[in-house]
Design a protein that fits this description.
This protein has about 230 residues and is mostly helical. It has one domain (about 55-225). The chain has nine helices and no strands. It has helices at about 5, 60-80, 85-90, 100-110, 125-140, 145-160, 170-185, 195-210, 215-225. The longest helix has 22 residues, at about 60-80. It starts with a helix and ends with a helix.
Amino acid sequence: MRQSRYIKTLFEPSCCQNRNGKILTLPFFYSEDMRSPAQPPTPSINWEEFNLTALPDPVQLDNIKAQLDLVLLALETLTGIGSDAILSAAALLNLESAIQDRVNLWRLRSSNPLRKSQGGRKKLDVEEARSLVLIICHLAKQHQELIRRAVALLEQMTEQNRAPHQAALLGDYLDAFSNKYVERMEEGENLSPDSLAHLALKLMIDLLFYSSKGGHRRLWLALLGKTKK
């Protein structure tokens, strides 16, 4: 099974879980800068924040590809956006040299080593990786209100000891994420429903952080941190 090194890191305890694996309530991880209404972002890129002391090796880049594709999958299934929104964000942020068109985007995402069909290139360069980081965080900020509402709903369901599926918004998200994951990823059919739900909810909470101020830096550092494990 190839699940091991790519997906394993996504199931490790994060800042939004306690030692028993229970998702913590919002006061523990929900900062004030995430509560303010999302404002239309002004494209401004500080490329110095993406400087690397050493370029990731091919294995690390494969890991980054897998993680970015999964974050995009969570964002798509929660907000309902598609490739048009991703390409529009690329144009707005002047990143068209890295994300040129629908075919280029498809090939880039299909090169995720977790996918059933790897029709894209076998490598992801650093320029493409950081461009995807900026696009993800731009779109997450645009949909911050919805993401925040979903996380608040998850907190409410947790406090009431109710299953997330019992809330319509979360249930629809979990079903859509699970269906797309099983359809696209090699290991989809080998993961239990609970594991898929855990992955989907963790990615959803991560999106809240990425939608906040400095979200692109949070995501970039998270990617680099996982590649070092």
